[in-house]
Each structure stands twice: as structure tokens, then as C-alpha cells.
Amino acid sequence: MAVPKRKTSKSKKNMRRAANSKFSAAGFVNCPNCGETKLPHRVCSDCGHYKGKEVVETQ
User: Where are the domains of the chain?
Assistant: First the structure.
């Protein structure tokens, strides 16, 4: 069984973990009706529209 010869330093550990933070959360689009950001192919939580039609009634 392979065993590390030396302890991984905090610097090396953090450099390895930092590679995952380079990617940002993509996929947000603006609602064509109200302009709020929303996930694609979902009903807008602010105005209740989907594909130009009101699907959910909002206040």
C-alpha cells in the first residue's frame, strides 16, 4: 500500500483545492419579461413567466 513520505504542506493542499474555484457557476440567464436572473428552462420566480407566457400567478 502506498504511503506518503512527507506531510502535504498547507500551501500545497490549498493550491490543489484552489483549482476547483477557478470555474464560476455558469448558466444564469436574464428573464426576457422582467430582466431578473434565472436558471434556463425554468419558470421565472419573480414574474412567473416561461417562454413568453404567464405560467404561475404572482402578486
Answer: 25-59
CB burial readout 22-36, b (16+ within 10 A) else e: eeeeeeeeebeeeee
* Residue among 21, 23, 43 at smallest CA distance from 32: 43
C-alpha cell recorded at residue 52: 413568453
Cβ contacts of 28 within 8 Å, gap of 6 or more: 37, 38, 39
pTM score, two decimals? 0.52
pLDDT tens digits along 3-54: 999 999 999 999 999 887 777 777 899 999 999 999 999 999 889 999 988 8
- The helices-and-strands tally (H runs, E runs) of the chain is 1, 4
